[in-house]
Design goal:
Keywords: Signal. The chain has 668 residues and is mainly β. The protein has 5 helices and 44 strands.
Length: 668
């Protein structure tokens, strides 16, 4: 799948630098000098571009006597040949150089255009760490609070990702020239924080550090960096661990001039995880080679408090794992209504009205509740309506699945061997075609087009089931459109389907009967009056005033309780508040604090002291909420200091005298 972000930028890196500033080695020059005019494509080098994968191969045609260099969109390399994998469509350039007696000479830029975006090159978790993920942005600020490495860390020249992420200990064998370069220890690192001499005197240094901008990286219509209101494109290479900053954008602020560091465009990554971004820069001390001081500028995610998850940062990933279903054949044909459920012989599906289709993408970095990386499929709902996932509608879509008994031919040529058969028909578009259910897949006898979506249709013979939930009446099935580096499908385009309501849909709300004999009413914590319809955590006798199996809210449904509370004399001006107590974590937070300002600081209604009060709860999640075994259904009413009579011995409303009247309990 080519993810089209309609993205274009010119990644021109026109920086010319001396060989001593760029690398630690000094090169001999046995070959004749060349000029910039000699360094042209086809004569001095070749460039091969694969528009299908966005792989760009660069190869020198000069002999081995020449030391050659490349400045390309993913960095600078001193190699004879190399390659770059560039995710985004756009205009780019490459410069080819050769070592001469006067330093490196570069030819004119070779310019080219990539026509498509290759989303397969964006699956590395470093993209999510840096930007927040597809169509997201993430802001970083200098680590002046020393939450990780601190703002500035000094280090030995060869150190990089291996040191600050992998934890390597450097020895003399790793850095034999350390003493010559003026370092006492090949493993020397100094987390200096923000030394007051770094940019001159203390006052200047403080002002300079305070002026360093926040960095906002995003994956919105390409890969972009926003600094101080300016937005320009950047390039990252997760394999090389490099970031190519936008040329002409002073991302460290105006107080740090272009000459303070050797190169502010081609940056090496030494650390990148959920909360920390470490960038390696070379301070331009004028000494050349390894004597120019290396340092890490450490940024942290804006708002991070320094606390890690249970297991700390991790770059480990797990390969895609498709959902499993114990009995998909049963789930596909189970219909749950308001009052009953049954195993149907036919189920009709409609398109989800809000989002008829979606992209499902594997994120191999997701951790479970114990901090273990196990990965997860994510529905990229936020992309719907963007160029990557254009809006789609098909008001006439009706798909019916049938199950019946088929018969296979026996050894005598008679069709007498029964088997479970399944068929599918799409109204006005597809006569019934048979299918089989194989694990988590629906496999059709011939190719089926469910949705003619763009850029990729939901079309194929084999459909993977990502969600089959009879409780919600939802079915999400799709076909692969992208693969990871190992050739395993990691992105699918899917149809979002919903079961057509029985009988064309219920005309009114579902009414739930309430037996007042089993209502549990009491004063909670010497504080408020509680009318308890159900509580999974205080099951004294198992007798409830309602059939708890019916306390089930599908997506978008609302449960409403209407009641009266007669026989109470309230104080003048009393305005007792009422809240709906529950334990659903995915809904708006509910505060169970029992102090006077606690529970009733939640969204509440005023009690109708002389009539009917209605209180409700709406399911705003994407799934079904079931009270049974999971949540309470408790109506909490203010009373302390607000009641004249009847009172108990503690001065609270006497719950043994006051009996609520339930007017109605409905789900709609």
């Amino acid at each position: 799948m080519k993810h089209k972000f309609f993205y274009s930028f010119l990644a021109g890196v026109a920086l010319l630098f001396s060989s001593t500033a760029c690398t630690p080695e000094d090169e001999s020059l046995p070959a004749p000098d060349l000029t910039a005019a000699d360094l042209v494509e086809g004569k001095a080098y070749t460039i091969e571009i694969d528009q299908a994968t966005n792989k760009v191969k660069m190869k020198s045609l000069l002999g081995s006597r020449y030391v050659t260099s490349w400045i390309h969109p993913q960095g600078i390399e001193r190699k004879t040949s190399t390659e770059a994998n560039i995710p985004f469509a756009g205009d780019y350039e490459i410069r080819f150089g050769v070592m001469t007696r006067g330093g490196i000479v570069y030819g004119e830029p070779y310019r080219f255009t990539l026509e498509n975006t290759n989303g397969d090159l964006l699956t590395d978790p470093l993209w999510t760490y840096l930007t927040g993920g597809a169509d997201q942005s993430k802001t970083w600020e200098l680590d002046t609070k020393n939450l990780d490495l601190g703002a500035f860390t000094f280090m030995c020249a060869p150190m990089g990702w291996d040191k600050f992420t992998d934890g390597k200990t450097y020895t003399e064998a790793d850095y034999p020239s350390y003493a010559e370069d003026g370092v006492d220890d090949p493993n020397w690192v100094w987390q200096a924080g923000a030394p007051d001499w770094l940019f001159g005197d203390a006052a200047t240094t403080t002002a300079t550090i305070e002026s360093i901008h926040e960095l906002t990286f995003d994956l919105i219509n390409g890969a972009n960096l926003t600094v101080n209101g300016q937005t320009k494109a950047f390039v990252m290479d997760p394999d090389r661990k490099t970031i190519t900053m936008p040329a002409g954008l002073n991302w460290l602020g105006d107080r740090i001039g272009d000459s303070y560091f050797v190169d502010m465009v081609n940056i090496e990554l030494v650390k990148l995880n959920e909360h920390v971004l470490g960038l390696k820069l070379i301070r331009n001390d004028g000494k050349g080679g390894n004597k120019d001081q290396r340092m890490v500028l450490c940024f942290v995610e804006k708002g991070w408090d320094g606390e890690w998850p249970v297991t700390g940062p991790s770059l480990s990933t797990v390969p895609p794992v498709l959902p499993e279903y114990k009995d998909l054949a049963t789930d596909l044909f189970t219909i749950i209504g308001d009052d009953a459920s049954y195993h149907a012989t036919a189920v009709t599906y409609l398109l989800d009205s809000e989002q008829p289709y979606c992209l499902m993408e594997w994120d191999g970095t997701v951790k479970n509740g114990e901090g273990k990386v196990e990965g997860a499929w994510k529905k990229l709902s936020e992309l719907y309506g963007t160029p990557a996932c254009p809006a789609f509608s098909d008001d006439e879509f009706v798909m019916t699945m049938n199950r019946y008994t088929g018969y296979k031919e026996d050894s005598d040529g008679k069709f007498s061997i029964p088997y479970n058969a399944y068929g599918l028909a799409i109204e006005e578009r597809l006569a019934q075609t048979e299918f089989t259910i194989e694990g988590n897949k629906i496999v059709f006898a011939r190719e089926v087009t469910l949705l003619a979506t763009t850029p990729d249709p939901v079309k194929g013979k084999e459909f993977t089931v990502f969600e089959c939930n009879p409780e919600n009446g939802t079915l999400v099935i799709g076909v692969p459109v992208a693969k990871d580096e190992n050739g395993v499908a990691n992105r699918y385009v899917c149809a979002n389907l919903t079961v057509k309501s029985l009988g064309g849909g219920q005309a009114g709300p579902t009414v739930i009967a309430v037996n007042p004999e089993y209502l549990n009413c009491y004063i909670q914590d010497d504080h408020h009056y509680r009318l308890e319809v159900y509580n999974a955590f205080y099951d004294a006798d198992g007798l409830y005033p309602v059939d708890v199996t019916k306390l089930r809210l599908k997506k978008g449904q609302t449960i409403k309780l209407a009641f009266r509370l007669p026989g109470i004399t309230w104080t003048d001006g009393a305005d007792p508040k009422v809240v709906f107590g529950h334990n659903f974590d995915d809904l708006a937070a509910f505060n169970w604090d029992s102090n006077d300002a606690g529970v009733f600081s939640n969204p509440s209604v005023s009690l109708n002291k002389d009539g009917v009060t209605e209180i409700s709860l709406t399911n705003t999640t994407s799934g079904t909420l079931k009270f049974e075994g999971a949540s309470c259904f408790s109506i909490c009413i203010q009373q302390k200091g607000l009641v004249v009579s009847p009172l108990d011995a503690d001065g609270n409303l006497d719950a043994t005298v006051v009996k609520p009247e339930i007017v109605s309990l409905t789900i709609e």
